Amino acid sequence: MVTFAQLRDAQPALWQTAADDLLAVAKQSERTAGNIHANGAKKLEEHWPDHTGTLARNVLVQTANRMVNTGVLARGATTPLDTLQDAVEIAQRELAAGVSEATAKGFSVGDDGRVSLPTASVDPVGDLMTALRYQQRIADAVQAATQADRLCADALSAVSLNPDDVTVEQAQNAQSAAVRKAVEEIRDQLPDGLPPEEVGKWWAALTPQQQQQLRLAAPVELYDLPGIPADVKAQLINNGNGYNPIEAVRWAYANASNEGLNRFPNYCALFVSESLRAGGLSEVEGRWSKEDWANLIPNMPSVHIPFTDRNFDADQYRYTKSWYNADEQRSFLVNSGAAPVPVSQARPGDVIYFNWSDPAAHNGEVSHHAAIVSSVLPNGEVLYTQHTPGAVNYSFQDRLPIRLQEQDPQTVVVIRPGGVQ
To answer: Is residue 139 domain-resident?
Structure first.
């Protein structure tokens, strides 16, 4: 349990230093693993193919795998430590605002966080009610810090594994669990136990940077919180400009593991299309659409029929190819008013596409995977939610190094949906 004094006197910047050191370890491990594979194991396989060469190669591969796992686990530890800094700074801001307002009104706050009535109170009952409100705000800040501290400890425990005793998949699962804990750290700073009036005061006391951090990291929860100013909520839903990223992310969270979406051999893009439609993005008949059966027969020439395998039910033929194919979907969005944005500017409700660096090696395919950007942590980590397999809030920055080691070279592009034309 974090105490009032501990929160007041905490130095969150120290956690940032630890996170930076761990990230440096992760990057060095990734470089080492790549160098071993490129300059050691691969060369041995090419030029020393006998039994002894195989034994030597196995040693190198084992060492490389250890470095891969070390990098994965170190990144998993970096994220919750980094986020703890921001979470505690937000809690400190709430604490300081409550204490400042209380003392300005003549109340006193002890080192234990207890609010006392003014010494010359003329309205003891009224002052008592006011003191209870200040006490609630202070208690909420301490509770938020306590939750963040506990979540960070749980996350670090999840990645405290021996890299020699786990597979890459197990290391990634631990890493993903740590990232999800980090998201909870920042979400738990929302004062959902306070009355709307007090929530409004809490929001106003935050710095513009902290407000932006919460918009990006916990957009759905922030939008649903009573007391958040109407103009902030309007910004979160794109001011009604034809696409509501909050509802897109909300749908993605609820349906990441929805097996009812498994209509095709690969359904990542179908999941994205359904998320975009939930966000109000308008379908375009024959180009990006999911026809109703009542309209299907008259419009049959505009409907792409992707498969003839009788094991697939006829309902699938309603979809245009851009509805379920990542490459076609990206092309459609870009040619219909959607704007590519740098990864550093990604925000919830955007679509992230994983693209082959050499499309010619993949029959001309550019985009091979699609997902919805669902959160962006204060350190800039872009988290995405997908359906191949179903997963919520994977870290793009954490998982890309493994993709680059296990698959052909690739890049990503982030697309911001707009008014489809």
So the answer is: yes
Same domain, 66 and 157: yes
Contact 382, 159 (CB under 8 A): no
Give one DSSP letter per residue of 290-349, joined into a string.
Answer: B--HHHHTTTGGGS------TTS-GGGGGB-HHHH-HHHHHHHHHTTT-EEE-GGG--TT
Phi and psi, residue 392, nearest 5° = -110, 125
In a domain, 357, yes or no: yes
Taking only the tens place, the pLDDT of each residue in 87-129 is: 999 999 999 999 999 999 999 999 999 999 998 878 889 999 9
CATH number of the domain at 345, please.
Answer: 3.90.1720
Cis amide prior to 389 (ω within 30 degrees): yes
264 close to 324: Cβ distance less than 8 angstroms: yes
**Among the ranges given (143-152, 222-231, 262-271), the one the predictor scored with the smallest mean pLDDT:** 262-271
What tokens does 203 get?
């929001």
- Alpha carbon distance 235, 227 (integer Å): 15
Among 121, 155, 189, identify where a domain stops.
189
pLDDT (tens digit per residue) in 326-362:
999 999 999 988 989 999 999 999 999 999 999 999 9
* 180 and 269 share one domain: no
Cα–Cα distance between 279 and 242 in angstroms, integer? 8
Name the region of 349 (left: φ>0; alpha: ψ -120 to 50; beta: rest): left
Instruction: Select from 148, 171, 189 the last residue of a domain.
Output: 189
3-state DSSP helix/strand/coil percent for the chain, to nearest 5? 60, 10, 30
Residue 300, pLDDT above cutoff 60: no
Instruction: Find the domain containing 322 and state its range.
Output: 245-294+316-416
| Count of the separate structural domains present in the chain | 2
CB contact at 8 A, 46 and 145: no
**Cα distances (angstroms) measured from residue 292 to each of 300, 328, 329, 361, 375:** 11, 21, 20, 37, 32
Angle at Cα 256 formed by Cα 381 and Cα 191, nearest 5°? 60
- In one-letter notation, the amino acid at residue 152 is C
Question: For residues 78 and 241, what is the distance between their CA atoms, to the nearest angstrom?
Answer: 37
Are 12 and 91 within 8 A, CB to CB? no
- Residue in 10, 91, 148, 120 with CA at minimum distance from that of residue 99: 91
Residues 266 and 123 occupy one common structural domain:
no
**Residue 196: inside a domain:** no
- 62 and 132 co-located in one domain: yes
